[in-house]
Design brief:
Order of helices and strands of chain A: HHEEHHHHHHHHHH
Number of helices of chain A: 12
Largest sheet of chain A: 2 strands, antiparallel
CATH superfamily of chain B: P-loop containing nucleotide triphosphate hydrolases
Chains: A mainly alpha, B alpha/beta, C mainly alpha
Largest sheet of chain B: 6 strands, mixed
Strand content of chain A: under 5%
Oligomer: heterotrimer
Number of domains of chain A: 1
CATH class of chain B: Alpha Beta
Helix content of chain B: 25-40%
Strand order of the largest sheet of chain B: 6-7-8-3-9-10
CATH topology of chain A: Arp2/3 complex 21 kDa subunit ARPC3
Structural class of chain A: mainly alpha
Helix content of chain A: over 70%
Chain lengths: 335, 234, 267
């Protein structure tokens, strides 16, 4: 479910950063009050490493640009509680984006929201815990794990669809996009639910004291304060994300416009997108309908632009090579 | 000097791990802590530096352990863990040894000075840039000791220092410990090692004081050792 | 075992690069962080139909990789991991948007094809920029900088620990797997029924280990909110890097330089 930087536009990325930062700030405040924080920290970090390893088993979902893998958010929430689980997921995603090119730096906010805020601050307090309220039996643990995992992955996948569409990088229609993402994540959600349930059951049987703090009904305090916040957060995020991206896509890009004024060559690119979609519907049989299209004008990319690009690429490669050679030459006498 | 008075450590599940223990270790003395598995040796060591909470009074080098001076206590008393892998987790040995001094807020120059100095002292300067993953048991043990010495402690608390060591590395360790001037509390099952390194030993049984005396006498006392669930040196 | 060991080493190979000592390594982490963000924002706010405008964004990763003496293959192979996702996302565009957009000689490219290429390039470039940042900035310095930017200490400490614990988890997992294989009469992986309890056990074992490692670092005076390392000096070189790095990204974003070069090329 990781979204890459390439698939996200800057405004959507920024909006999601804001939403996730708010949720994280709240989680930090909440957790710092906890008296046993010192004992919990290593468990949080190790569970994070565990989820990290589990997420290494992944595949890409055709057509969507998103990867399919276990989310792990529900497992973390079950082991650690909602707020600590959110922080842990955020840590995991940060390390993944920095060292493994999984997800991206700009997409980090979106990823934390889809895989962290949704399961930990929404689904966990609203679904996972209430089911266990009457006491944690094996049956209830299985039921709640599977249900909560499926729901959080469905919601997460839905958010991925929204964020990608708002970014305008794919021309997949909304319905088709959804029909690609949701069923796959239903299957992943089921697998994740089973894995989560199996691990939580094992932990409950061998080390019940690890779980009692988070799933037993005694610690009612946090769940009460969590619920309204969860709902408020969800609404806020949708509003902020939706509003910002609407603004971004409906406004003719001011920068593009000024470039056009300076160079006087390119058409407004946004406007063309609408035209081209209409044309695509008309000529839907061949991949490349036999148009006689004059070269050197029209869409965002032009022949002279490409020539300039080729020259630039060559120049960049040359500079890179020159620096490398110079470095080798300079370091050679010393060795 | 380390003074412990009526020290009790309780686990969260109310099990008493250490029960009203009192003992004193003089400056420069090396005291061996002997006891069967589960007697509370490791728990005692961790509780003395405030990792596990305990009640009673612990004074290390004139400083009485309380919540506000935990950092100072931990610079005065260094802990060497049973498994050196638990102490070495950074990419290079240099980073591992520098970890403590850096936490003390020293600038990079004095950190480097300290690290180099300690590595030289333990004859492991050649391991500086190596990763702990690629070291032998003996090298790991020395590196772990270096990480603690870099904090410049007055007291060293050791948990099974001869674990994972081959005979030659064990001999090296004995020689090293005999030359170090620190006050030491050494928890160990290796009685021959205890007899060589420590002059006095204390036997712990089920978290309580059982006996103490000179190692040369107590460790050879079959009757007493048997009663503590241990086996005397024959 | 050897296999898992080498994977653990590969895990931390970027960090070994970060221990290098070149002009780029010595720059202030804040400058590098800002330049990376400026680069990403400018790159990703370009329209998906302007293929040629991505070209100048090659300068930054290529020049920096060369200056920092990082093996280009290492960055590329890691960046390539992100490629399938971008390609799969873009492939639908090829089928949906078939409007011809460009003719080079006899070849006509559709808008969908161009956006596919753009997506792939965006993926490679954005990922390289991030990897480059990590390859020239030691992780502790990066996190120290985030602390100075008042990111919550808890989150940063957690990120650092998660990163370190990965190796420990891999070690524990490797040990368990070896123990399993020694008694499994030939089967390499535990079957499904055993898998649940084995992963559960792995988790609990790693928890114990995590706790011991945590105690060990506490014993060496590590605690949440400990004294911060003072900020490294911000030198004139950092200004130059910031202005050149962020400025060039902004300029490439603002002006269609490729178009100008192409049009005014002597022939």
């Amino acid at each position: 479910m990781h979204m890459a930087d390439a698939l996200l536009s800057a405004p959507v990325g920024g909006a999601m950063y804001a939403a996730s930062a708010g949720a994280l700030g709240w989680a930090v405040k909440n957790i710092e009050k906890e008296p046993q924080l010192d004992r919990k920290l290593p468990l949080m970090a190790m569970s994070g490493a565990f989820v990290f390893a589990a997420q290494m088993i992944n595949f890409s979902i055709p057509g969507t640009g998103s990867s399919g893998h276990l989310g792990g958010g529900m497992l973390l929430a079950g082991l650690l509680g909602g707020a600590p689980a959110l922080l842990t997921i955020a840590a995991v995603l940060t390390v993944q984006c920095l060292f493994f090119a999984d997800g991206g730096l700009l997409a980090l906010g979106a990823n934390i929201f889809n895989m962290g805020v949704i399961p930990c601050l929404l689904v966990w307090p609203l679904i996972f815990r209430p089911i266990l309220r009457k006491g944690a039996t094996k049956g209830r643990l299985w039921l709640t794990s599977i249900l909560a995992s499926v729901i959080s992955l469905q919601l997460g996948a839905f958010c991925v669809v929204l964020e990608t569409l708002c970014s305008g990088v794919t021309e997949l229609p909304f319905g088709l996009f959804l029909s690609l993402m949701q069923p796959i994540h239903l299957a992943i959600g089921l697998v994740e639910g089973i894995v989560t349930a199996a691990i939580l059951t094992y932990v409950m049987q061998t080390r019940p004291e690890l779980l009692t703090a988070n799933i037993s009904p005694q610690s009612e305090l946090t769940s009460v304060s969590l619920k309204p916040l969860a709902i408020a957060l969800a609404i806020l995020a949708v509003l902020v994300g939706g509003g910002l991206s609407l603004l971004a896509s409906s406004y003719p890009d001011g920068l593009e416009w000024s470039i056009q004024r300076i160079t006087g060559t390119t058409d407004l690119e946004r406007g063309d997108a609408v035209h081209s979609q209409a044309a695509a519907v008309q000529k839907s049989l061949a991949i490349l309908p036999d148009y006689d299209y004059p070269s050197g004008q029209g869409q965002g990319t032009t022949a002279s632009g490409l020539l300039g690009a080729a020259i630039t690429c060559a120049l960049a490669a040359l500079i890179g090579l020159a620096i490398s050679c110079l470095k080798k030459f300079r370091s050679a006498p010393q060795q | 000097m380390v003074t412990i008075r009526d020290w009790t450590v309780q686990y969260p599940d109310a099990t008493v791990a250490i029960d009203r223990l009192s003992l004193q270790i003089e400056d420069g003395e090396r005291l061996a802590l002997i006891g069967a598995n589960g007697a509370g040796k490791s728990t005692l060591i961790l509780s003395l530096v405030g990792i596990l909470p305990g009640s009673g009074e612990v004074t290390i080098e004139g400083l009485t352990l309380n919540k506000s001076n935990i950092t100072e206590i931990r610079t005065k008393a260094g802990v060497i863990f049973q498994n050196p892998d638990d102490q070495l987790f950074l990419p290079t040995i240099y980073d591992d040894v520098a970890f403590g001094p850096r936490n003390l807020g020293l600038d990079e120059e004095s950190v480097r000075h300290r690290v180099e100095d300690r590595l030289e002292l333990l004859n492991i300067a050649h391991l500086r840039e190596r990763s702990a993953l690629k070291l032998s048991g003996g090298e790991k043990r020395m590196a772990a000791i270096a990480t603690v010495l870099a904090m410049k402690p007055d007291v060293m608390l050791m948990d099974e220092p001869t674990a994972f060591l081959d005979p030659k590395s064990r001999r090296c360790l004995i020689k090293l410990l005999q030359t170090l001037p620190h006050t030491m509390l050494i928890a160990t099952h290796d009685l021959a090692f205890a007899a060589e390194v420590c002059s006095r030993c204390l036997i712990l049984k089920d978290g309580r004081y059982f006996a103490d005396g000179p190692t040369q006498k107590l460790l050879y006392d079959a009757e007493k050792m048997d009663a503590a669930g241990l086996e005397a040196i024959s | 075992m050897a296999d898992i060991r080498s994977k653990i080493n590969a895990l931390y190979s970027l960090e070994q690069l970060a221990a290098g000592d070149t002009v780029l390594h010595r720059l202030h982490p804040l400058g590098k962080l800002l330049v990376t963000f400026a680069y990403l924002i400018c790159l990703l706010s370009l329209d998906c139909s302007s293929l040629h405008r991505l070209a100048p964004f090659l300068f930054y990763p290529i020049i920096c990789t060369a200056i920092a003496a990082i093996p280009a293959g290492m960055i590329l192979s890691r960046a390539a991991l992100a490629l399938p996702f971008a390609l799969l996302a873009g492939i639908s565009n090829v089928f949906i948007n078939r409007t011809p957009a460009l003719r080079i000689g006899g070849i006509i490219l559709s808008a969908g094809m161009i956006s596919l290429l753009v997506l792939a390039l965006r993926a490679l470039l954005s990922v390289s920029a991030v990897l480059l940042l990590v390859a020239v900035t030691p992780f502790p310095k990066l996190t120290e900088q985030l602390r100075r930017l008042h990111m919550p200490e808890l989150l940063i400490a957690l990120t650092e620990m998660t990163y370190r614990y990965l190796g420990i988890l891999a070690e524990e997992g490797a040990n368990m797997l070896t123990a399993f294989r020694l008694r499994s009469c030939g089967s390499q992986w535990p079957h499904l029924q055993l898998f649940g309890s084995m992963t559960g056990q792995l988790l609990l074992r790693s928890f114990d280990r995590a706790e011991r490692v945590y105690h060990a670092i506490q014993c060496r005076c590590w605690h949440l909110g400990r004294r911060q390392i003072s900020s490294p000096p911000w030198r004139i070189g950092d200004w130059i890097f910031l202005i050149l790095g962020a400025g060039s990204s902004l300029a490439f974003r603002q002006f269609d330089l490729m178009q100008m070069i192409g049009e005014h090329w002597p022939w």
